[in-house]
Design goal:
- By secondary structure, the chain is α+β, with helices and mostly antiparallel strands.
- It is 52% helix and 15% strand.
- It is built from seven helices and four strands.
- Strands 1-2-4-3 form a four-stranded antiparallel sheet.
- Helix 1 packs across helix 4 and helix 3 packs across helix 4.
Length: 185
């Protein structure tokens, strides 16, 4: 996983869970140096972010999925800023971002690093009801909780109230996750 996600995690912990001392304690509890720095375009083992998130969930006495979803909500708007050049002109609402960015951003990343295996992410707006979208997510990382959170965070960014329900999940044996999103406004 790219270091930018670790940096976003650092920012999340510092801003929402107690500051730099909490981040350093989380690193130390995860068997890392408390002064470790993650460089945005460097790659780090996926297991490392899972260990950090699991350690945070244990410290907060919360389910891992809840911590990952909250992190996703925090990071969604930041991902838009980070990838601004790739979504410019396609950033007016959640559905447009998901439809455009799911493939386009990952294609651009893959151009710069052909060995990278980004998640498969797509969104299909219902033909019968344009307020409904089905999001498909597939990745060996199985970070569907983060995806649900990103959707929630983007909804907040665009002032859209969303109902988000995962109807199929890789954690229960499915080959991909299916997330239904309904605009309530």
């Amino acid at each position: 996983m790219y270091g930018m996600m670790f940096d976003f995690l650092r920012e999340y912990v510092i801003k929402t869970h107690g500051g730099v001392a909490t981040w350093r304690a989380l690193l130390k509890a995860s068997s890392q140096s408390e002064y470790k720095i993650y460089f945005p375009i460097s790659e780090y083992p996926d297991e490392e972010i899972v260990t950090l998130a699991t350690t945070a969930a244990t410290a907060l006495d919360l389910p891992l999925a809840a911590v990952l979803e909250d992190f996703g909500s925090f990071v969604g708007p930041r991902l838009m800023e980070f990838y601004r050049p790739y979504v410019e002109g396609h950033d007016q609402d959640v559905f447009t971002v998901v439809q455009y960015a799911g493939g386009h951003i990952h294609d651009q990343i893959h151009k710069h690093n052909p060995d990278r295996k980004p998640p498969l992410l797509s969104g299909e707006i219902s033909e019968s009801d344009p307020r409904k979208m089905i999001v498909h997510y597939q990745s060996k990382r199985k970070m569907c909780s983060v995806v649900r959170g990103v959707l929630r965070g983007l909804g907040s960014k665009f002032g859209e109230r969303l109902h988000i329900e995962e109807t199929q999940c890789m954690h229960t044996g499915a080959d991909k996750c299916t997330i239904n999103v309904i605009k309530l406004d």
